[in-house]
């Protein structure tokens, strides 16, 4: 690292290369915090976690035992060693507890008064945080694998739901019903994620080896099917228009919404340009057991200047340019 710093000081090293080297060094040096622990409530594995985006203080956890726990992460004792306590939980004795494994929990993006959970019991439940009572419940014919609410939506209250079936279901919190479905995948939907940049753009991952980008206002099908070969012919015809050589287990957008990260059972993670669907050819080693991704913006991203923003917009898929017009706001 000292060599990098000396070369950068002399103007011989690209600052981006130095930034990547430092972020890599920090990530490889990560270890569990020995000073902080979390109170153990679950009797078996924890499948999902979510920290509320308003204060960053409260965390939800969902377990394979069907239990949901709400933790307070603040160190109220002011001691160097402390345990994050559980504020409350939806335990096995709760009348509305999930019957089977909880696969996803998510806070309502705009306040902590509500959160959602989905489970192998084929339900998506909307909870009132203050009373821990169900405000609404959506029932499905298939096992639910994943759900997600848009972090930036102002014109809709849709929850995208991935199930054992090949159709992506969109549930409207305002009407309390499933508004419509997205068809295009051939097998179960393993992960869904809304763009943090555009409120109508949704990414989906499936066991059919494909990842797709959708504008949920369009009835003509998906915007882009991600292709690991970027349209080039490959020797294996079965790998055409696939994101991975195996199931696509998980995906997440970068915090600026310009890129999408996917992980598959082929032990690979790939980074995609979300505006045109191109594989950036940034390839990372993954794990067959990995299905949850998170992006750390402070380590991995630089703030684009005005020229970068202009360049990005000029490379957008034409459908994206239409989608972000001001016509919706005028109507």
Automatic annotation (TrEMBL):
WD repeats by residue range? 39-81, 95-137, 182-217, 241-282
Q: Which PROSITE patterns match?
A: WD_REPEATS_1, WD_REPEATS_2, WD_REPEATS_REGION
As for subcellular location, the record says: Chromosome; Nucleus matrix
Q: Which residues form the signal peptide?
A: none
Region of interest (Disordered), ranges: 304-331
Entries under InterPro entries matching the protein: Rad28/ERCC8/Ckn1/ATCSA-1, WD40/YVTN_repeat-like_dom_sf, WD40_PAC1, WD40_repeat_CS, WD40_repeat_dom_sf, WD40_rpt
Q: Does the keyword DNA repair apply?
A: yes
Listed GO biological process terms: response to UV; transcription-coupled nucleotide-excision repair
Which key words tag this protein in UniProt? Chromosome, DNA damage, DNA repair, Nucleus, Phosphoprotein, Repeat, Ubl conjugation pathway, WD repeat
Which Pfam families does the record match to this protein? WD40 (PF00400)
Which biological pathway? Answer: Protein modification; protein ubiquitination
| GO CC annotation terms, alphabetical | chromosome; nuclear matrix
Instruction: Fill in the subunit field for this protein.
Output: Part of the CSA complex (also named DCX(ERCC8) complex), a DCX E3 ubiquitin-protein ligase complex containing ERCC8, RBX1, DDB1 and CUL4A; the CSA complex interacts with RNA polymerase II; upon UV irradiation it interacts with the COP9 signalosome and preferentially with the hyperphosphorylated form of RNA polymerase II. Interacts with ERCC6/CSB (via CIM motif); promoting recruitment to lesion-stalled RNA polymerase II (Pol II). Interacts with KIAA1530/UVSSA. Interacts with a subunit of RNA polymerase II TFIIH.
PANTHER family per record: DNA EXCISION REPAIR PROTEIN ERCC-8
Q: What is this protein called?
A: DNA excision repair protein ERCC-8
Record the organism. Answer: Bos taurus (Bovine)
Give the gene that encodes this protein.
Answer: ERCC8
